[in-house]
Specification:
Strand order of the largest sheet: 12-13-15-16-17-18-19-20
Shape: elongated
Radius of gyration: 46 Å
Number of strands: 20
Strand content: 5-15%
Number of helices: 28
Largest sheet: 8 strands, mixed, barrel
Mean pLDDT: 80
Low-confidence stretches: 225-234
Length: about 800
């Protein structure tokens, strides 16, 4: 009974540990450890019950599979929990570790000829026992189990000593104590006492239950963070008592003889008494499940499954109908346990969910109450409170024909304070400024924090706009005084936008939006000023917003097209190529200036798909131009910094060249001087990759930015385009600008680069550039940007000439 109880309890501990985390190697080794103990214990249990010596030896050999491997598995487990090393160990580690276990199993479990007579069996009042002869194999086993146990104790001691964690130290000491207790007790009972008396059964499997329990609770502490799991709780003792009681009833059922059973004055038939015992077992199982949750469920399932299997074996071997009621009863109990477990899990899940939702609801209510009315940092009214109060002011103003002013305040360059002094100092500055503004505004209006460094002021019940002007002057005056934090001065200016009811809107959202628009207009005009919202500002903002939205649909609606401006060789006066210029014909606003929509495309990221469309379209078109001209022409394409920062840009260009069958030397990429000489290694790498494809690179608007001669020398450039402003200065006889042009052309020649002058509009400009050795020109003197429909006739005429 003890052996079977130990087997059930040990196996249940292993299953529970696997359920905690089955992927952890230490958990899997622990399961292997308790499985070995269970095999050891079950083998001894059935050996004690065996009717013949041959059957006893068979079960003894099965038991040896457990006790032969348990010490190697135990040492493996100790190595895992005490070592800092993570990952698999080399193959020889496992060979060295498990070789003694393998030899023990070969000698005592498998009839291999190594140990001819491994067991000296004797039948006693305790069942069959083994009398050890202390031969060479017994001595080798003593060395194996003793050395492995002592080595495990040493590793545990070192683990506890080196660790700085108090819990680990406590765990190590407790495990060492239990293993030492087991070592001395098992050595005394199973070796010393057995040799002296001879009739004592093995007690080591029973004693092994103590360290298994301690290690199980240690694993739970490490992986479930439970409180004080190292203490052997009443709950665990309660489980042990229940298991022993259940197993005792099972043995009573096995020993029942046919006939009447007398309980005091009560006479029962054997079948009736057996049914009563089965019902008691059912009540024990249900009680364990209800009281002990997961451990109770696993143990109850193991016990009832064991009884079910033994009943089935008895039914098959004895060919008797006596076990059938028990079989049906055990099956019913198993089904009932599964139903109870499922119901408990679902109930616990629902209760946990309800409690979590209730807690979340309370927390949400608390947060909403806190945030609905006041800002946590400044103590000012919050945005929601401001909007609610503004709505009341608007209703009152509508009723009494009054005006309401909304002032939107945004501090200029406040981010610099956060970046240089830290967000904590930035918060202190906001608190100090909000206190000053509160004193200035007083009861004349409502000050609220809108978010970040943005504040709103509402001035209700106005007859005229004069109080708004006075309030703005007061705010500006307040901000002139620096905020002093830890003897450091922080100067903060503000851009202010103003909207007035009913002129700029009749709802809180509209008024705040228009005040925000006016604030951004103030920033655009140079910051540190106040701007009233006007119809022009609103129209401009509305148009920009609409254009940004329409920008996303421009490709799908086929609103983009290219114009091509010819480039002329001053040597031959012939067209040598074209520059592709992107244009947008919006369905709502008509032709949109590139200076307007190109920055929008860069800000929204639409410049990437637009750029790929331009490259593909231009490459397709240059093929047609070459056919019309009967010779090779080049196509120039403008690339922005946003496009160059795209890691896949060059790959896309290579794919387009291959797809359109465009020779790379027919394609020229134009980048601005500011892009070309950015100190970004990635940009240089992108341009070098383009050069490797065979694409030419030109610098547009040269002379308007700052260029380092050393970078100009090392950059992969083929052509320099002189900015139009210098070309226009030729006609004005500005000698400095003309000298700059001469210098640019001479510099390019010295570096082996070609030069193109853009924006040539007069004969005087043409002759000057030709005299200075300029290679190519581009401008209205020859051609304006042309659509594709005009290019064919242009090329046909140029061929005739």
């Amino acid at each position: 009974m003890l052996f079977i109880s130990v087997s059930i309890l040990a196996l249940a501990s292993g299953i529970l540990v696997l359920q905690i985390n089955h992927s952890t190697i230490s958990n899997r080794i622990f399961f292997a450890l308790v499985s070995a103990i269970s095999i050891w214990s079950l083998g001894l249990a059935f050996a004690n019950l065996a009717p013949t010596r041959e059957a006893v030896e068979l079960w003894r050999r099965i038991s040896a599979l457990g006790w032969g491997s348990v010490y190697a598995i135990f040492l493996h487990f100790i190595i895992l929990i005490s070592s800092k090393r993570v990952g698999r160990r080399p193959w020889w580690f496992y060979v060295v570790l498990y070789t003694p276990a393998l030899l023990t199993i070969l000698a005592f479990s498998i009839p291999s000829g190594l140990n001819v007579e491994p067991y000296q069996l004797r039948h006693t009042e305790f069942g069959w026992v083994n009398i050890a002869e202390h031969n060479i194999w017994d001595i080798l086993f003593y060395i194996y189990y003793g050395s492995y146990t002592i080595l495990g104790l040493v590793l545990l001691a070192l683990w506890g000593k080196k660790s700085k964690d108090a819990d680990i130290k406590k765990q190590a000491r407790l495990i060492i104590f239990t293993i030492l207790t087991l070592l001395f007790a098992a050595t005394f009972t199973d070796i010393i006492l057995s040799s002296m008396v001879g009739d004592i059964p093995q007690m080591a499997p029973v004693l092994m239950l103590l360290p298994v329990t301690i290690i199980y609770n240690t694993i739970r502490k490490g992986q479930e963070k439970e409180e004080n799991p190292l203490r052997l709780s009443f709950s665990y003792i309660h489980i042990i008592i229940s298991v022993v009681f259940y197993v005792c009833i099972s043995f009573i059922q096995i020993r029942l003889e046919p006939g009447a059973v007398a309980i005091g004055q009560l006479q029962l038939t054997e079948s009736t008494f057996r049914g009563i015992l089965t019902q008691v077992q059912m009540f024990i199982s249900i009680y364990l499940v209800l009281r002990e949750a997961k451990p109770g469920f696993i143990i109850s399932m193991l016990m009832n499954t064991t009884n079910l299997l033994s009943s089935l074996v008895f039914w098959i071997r004895m060919d008797s109908n006596v076990p059938i009621p028990g079989i049906i009863s055990y099956v019913g109990v198993l089904i009932l346990l599964l139903i109870i477990r499922t119901f408990r899990k679902q109930s616990a899940m629902y209760i946990e969910r309800i409690q979590s939702q209730r807690q979340d609801l309370k927390e949400s209510e608390r947060q909403l109450y806190k945030l609905a009315y006041y800002d946590s940092l400044t103590g000012l009214p919050s945005r929601d409170y401001f909007i609610e109060k503004l709505q009341q002011s608007l209703e009152r103003a509508d009723k009494h024909h009054k005006r309401v002013g909304i002032i939107f305040i945004d501090f200029d360059s406040f981010k610099a304070i956060n970046d240089t002094a830290g967000h904590m100092v930035g918060d202190l500055v906001l608190q100090l400024i909000s206190q000053r503004l509160t004193k200035r505004i007083g009861k004349k209006g409502t000050l609220a924090r809108f978010g970040g460094d943005e504040f709103l002021v509402e001035i209700p019940d106005l007859e005229t706009d004069e109080p708004i002007h006075a309030m703005i002057e007061s705010i500006m005056e307040t901000l002139k005084k620096p905020a002093v934090i830890d003897d450091e001065e922080y100067h903060v200016s503000a851009s202010i936008g103003i909207a007035v009811y009913p002129d700029d809107g009749e709802s809180p959202d509209t008024l705040i939006k228009n005040a925000d628009i006016a604030m951004y207009e103030a920033k655009g005009r140079g910051k540190n000023q106040a701007v009233f919202c006007t119809d022009d500002i609103k129209d401009s903002t509305t148009m920009n917003h609409t254009l940004v939205n329409n920008l996303y649909w421009a490709l799908d609606r086929d609103e983009l097209h290219l114009l091509y401006q010819p480039k002329i060789s001053l040597e031959t006066n012939k067209i040598i190529g074209f520059e592709a210029l992107l244009r947008w014909n919006n369905s709502e606003y008509g032709v949109v200036n590139p200076e307007v929509f190109i920055p929008m495309a860069e800000q929204t990221g639409m410049i990437r798909p637009f750029g790929l469309w331009v490259i593909r379209t231009a490459c397709q078109q240059i093929q047609q131009f070459n056919e019309w001209a009967g010779r090779e022409l080049s196509i120039s394409i403008n690339i922005s910094l946003i496009q160059l920062r795209d890691p896949s840009m060059v790959e896309h260009m290579a794919a387009i060249l291959k797809e359109t069958h465009t020779p790379p030397h027919n394609v020229e990429v134009e980048i601005t001087e500011s892009i070309a000489f950015q100190d970004e290694p990635f940009i240089m790498e992108q341009l070098r990759k383009m050069k490797e494809l065979g694409i030419s690179i030109a610098i547009d608007d040269f002379g308007t930015g700052y260029s380092s001669f050393s970078r100009l020398r090392t950059f992969p450039i083929d052509l320099i385009k002189i900015d139009i402003e210098f070309v226009r200065a030729i006609s004005s006889n500005l000698h400095k600008d003309q000298a700059i042009i001469r210098s640019i052309i001479q510099l390019a020649k010295n570096l082996g680069l070609k030069v193109l002058a853009e924006g040539v509009e007069t004969e005087e400009q043409l002759q000057f550039l030709k005299g200075q050795g300029c290679d190519f020109i581009q401008g209205f003197l020859f051609y304006t940007p042309l659509p594709v429909s005009s290019i064919k006739q242009l090329l046909d005429n140029s061929q005739k000439n």
